Every structure is written in structure tokens, then in C-alpha cells.
TrEMBL record:
<dbReference type="Pfam" id="PF00005">
    <property type="entry name" value="ABC_tran"/>
</dbReference>
<feature type="domain" description="ABC transporter">
    <location>
        <begin position="5"/>
        <end position="241"/>
    </location>
</feature>
<dbReference type="InterPro" id="IPR017871">
    <property type="entry name" value="ABC_transporter-like_CS"/>
</dbReference>
<dbReference type="GO" id="GO:0016887">
    <property type="term" value="F:ATP hydrolysis activity"/>
</dbReference>
<protein>
    <submittedName>
        <fullName>ATP-binding cassette domain-containing protein</fullName>
    </submittedName>
</protein>
<keyword id="KW-0813">Transport</keyword>
<dbReference type="GO" id="GO:0005524">
    <property type="term" value="F:ATP binding"/>
</dbReference>
<dbReference type="InterPro" id="IPR003439">
    <property type="entry name" value="ABC_transporter-like_ATP-bd"/>
</dbReference>
<dbReference type="InterPro" id="IPR003593">
    <property type="entry name" value="AAA+_ATPase"/>
</dbReference>
<keyword id="KW-0547">Nucleotide-binding</keyword>
<keyword id="KW-0067">ATP-binding</keyword>
<dbReference type="InterPro" id="IPR027417">
    <property type="entry name" value="P-loop_NTPase"/>
</dbReference>
Length: 346
């Protein structure tokens, strides 16, 4: 099972430039969380702070009972072993083939024999669909394969926390969708805590259990996906709708005169799009971290946007979910395999 990350009052600046300030959130253990935000809001800096590559100016990062910024070097080294990191470009060594790239953390941080290392590497390559590509160099493969190789390397030490920085960068929409499905499948298998930084709206709408958003050096909100996807916050609605109108500008936030001009022109951030069904594991199982569709909205008296939780086949998963759970439980009781819901979403 994954480890909870608890952030309290975190602040980071480079010289006079404050990146973000007083950020507090809890990333639940074993769940998939996504962090959104316009370019330049410090999302990657936040990930680097979580793993101890950058030290915040103030605040706390609790990994279990350890406060990461204040650990002595040897404890920081040990705590980092809880993490796997998938960097934006995969960060593969160009002179090593994929097998040696993926084996590198095992050779560097463990005393495993080469036979044990081979077993682990091949298992992780199988998990990400790279079997048969062991001898290829990074320069000989596609961007999507590089991402999967980087992901396999992030998994070889069996991390309890997986940090993922812009997995969609450099990928076409199809490869991004396939990678998103892989994250869901991996979470179902290993129950690790996932935190994914992304600009991709489809990723944010379909895979996480929780969503947060950084803007204007602050955390606008963080919580269950339905909370953000039903939010009336103008910055959230503008971002989800990819609208030109709204508080987000080309570089920083827009000033009052710009917003007034947009209002006079009749421009707005748009209505909230429907909340899409969340991706299901490929084999149809129910992840340990999954929540019933519409449960948060119902518990908090929020009416979701029209058309929410309806899949491409026209099924409303608020209504379908109890029947699906019952069918899975019945299959498990009789020793059968989990059924697939007829699509990769619920």
C-alpha cells in the first residue's frame, strides 16, 4: 500500500521570486492525484521538493512520520527509496540500452545478484509493455516508449510513492491515452500513491481520484476529483474549458482592466463540461482507491453538470455502479475473473 504525503505551509522562492507560498495538502495513500496549473506555476518545483531535490524555504513535508526537509542526509537517502520518479523526458542514459537503464537503480542501490536483477527488470518491462525491446538504445525508440522505459525504471525498487512529471509532454493524444490507462492499471496492481503533474485536461478529467490546482503562487484547491470538476471557481472553469477569457493570462494573471474589457465583450470562462467517467483498470477490477461515481457530489449537495458520468455507450454510471460492484463481488465469490464493464471507463 502507498504512503500518505502531508504538506503543511510549504513555501519556495528563488531569490526575490516566490514560486508558491503556504501550500498545504494531503495526498491520500494508495490513490491517484493530479496537480494542474498554468505554465510557470511551479508544479515541477513542487515535485522536486517532495522528493528532497529542492529544499523549501518554510513548511513541512511529512512522509509517514518523517519530515523530509529536516532529515539528516542518511535518513533523507533512505526515505527517497520510497519514491519512484518519472521525469518529463524519461531521463534515460543515451549510451545504455533499455535493459541497463532500467537495471541502473537496482545496481546502484541494492546488492541483488544479476539473476535477481534480470528477473525484476523483465517483470517491470512486461508491466509497461516493453518486453523484446531490452537491447534498444533510447535514440532508437519513440517518445512513448521512452516514457514507458522511464516508468519501468521508476518501478524497479517497488516504490510506495510514484511522482510523474508531465507524462503527456511530447506525446500525441493516442499515446497519452494509452499511458493514462497504464497508470490506472499499475495503481490497481501495486496500490502505490501516485502524484501526476500535467497540463492535459483529458488526463485530469479521467484518471485521478483527487485533483489540485496551483495558480498565482497558491494552491487554489485540492480534493476529490468531483470537487474540482464541479467547481465554480473562475480560474478552474477557464482552465478546464481552455478558454481565452478568464483570470489566466499569457504570462501571469490578467489585470482588472483586461477582465473588465472581456466582460464588456461578453466573453466568459464558459459553463462546466460534464464530469467524465473515471478510467477503469483494463481487466475490469475495482481499484482499492476507487470511489462510487457521483458520491462526492451527492454527499455535498452539489448538482454535477448535465451529462456527467455518462460513458460513450450512453450508460449512466451513477445508476450502473451498484450493479457492477455486485457483479464483481459475485464473480469473486465463485472464483471467477472480474468482468469488464464493456469499456475502459466507469
Amino acid at each position: 500500500m502507498g504512503v500518505e504525503i502531508r504538506v503543511e505551509g510549504l513555501t519556495k522562492a528563488f531569490g526575490r521570486q516566490t514560486i508558491w507560498q503556504d501550500v498545504s495538502l494531503t495526498v491520500p495513500a494508495g490513490e491517484i492525484s493530479v496537480l494542474l496549473g498554468p505554465s510557470g506555476t511551479g508544479k515541477s518545483v513542487f515535485l522536486k521538493s517532495l522528493v528532497g531535490l529542492l529544499k523549501p524555504d518554510r513548511g513541512h513535508i511529512w512522509i509517514g512520520d518523517r519530515d523530509l526537509p529536516y532529515l539528516p542526509e542518511h535518513q533523507l537517502y533512505e526515505t527517497r527509496k520510497l519514491f519512484g520518479v518519472l521525469f518529463q523526458d524519461g531521463a534515460l542514459f543515451g549510451s545504455m540500452n533499455l535493459y541497463d537503464n532500467i537495471a541502473f537503480p537496482l545496481r546502484e542501490h541494492t546488492k541483488k545478484s544479476e539473476s535477481d536483477i534480470r528477473r525484476v527488470v523483465m517483470e517491470k518491462m512486461d508491466m509497461v509493455g516493453l518486453l523484446g525491446s531490452e537491447n534498444k538504445l533510447p535514440g532508437e525508440i519513440s517518445g512513448g516508449m521512452k516514457k514507458r522505459a522511464g516508468l519501468a525504471r521508476a518501478l524497479v525498487l517497488d516504490p510506495e510513492i510514484l511522482l510523474v512529471d508531465e507524462p503527456d509532454s511530447g506525446l500525441d493524444p493516442v499515446r497519452t491515452a494509452l499511458l493514462n490507462q497504464l497508470f490506472i492499471d499499475l495503481n490497481a496492481q501495486i496500490n502505490a500513491t501516485f502524484l501526476i503533474v500535467t497540463h492535459d485536461i483529458n488526463t485530469a478529467r479521467t484518471i485521478p481520484d483527487n485533483i489540485g490546482m496551483l495558480y498565482r503562487r497558491e494552491l487554489v484547491m485540492f480534493g476529490p476529483r468531483e470537487m474540482l470538476l464541479s467547481s465554480e471557481e473562475p480560474v478552474v472553469r477557464q482552465f478546464l474549458n481552455a478558454r481565452r477569457a478568464g483570470p489566466i493570462g499569457m504570462s501571469e494573471e490578467k489585470d482588472v482592466s483586461e477582465l473588465e474589457a472581456e466582460s464588456k465583450m461578453g466573453l466568459d470562462v464558459g459553463t462546466l463540461p460534464p464530469i467524465q467517467p473515471q478510467l477503469m483498470p483494463s481487466d475490469g477490477r475495482i481499484r482499492a482507491a476507487q470511489h462510487a461515481p457521483g458520491a462526492w457530489c451527492a454527499a455535498h449537495g452539489v448538482t454535477p453538470p448535465p451529462g456527467s458520468f455518462v460513458d460513450d455507450l450512453g450508460r449512466n454510471w451513477v445508476e450502473e455502479w451498484p450493479r457492477y460492484v455486485a457483479s464483481q463481488q459475485a464473480a469473486a465469490m465463485h472464483g471467477g475473473q472480474p468482468g469488464h464493464p464493456g469499456g475502459a471507463q466507469y
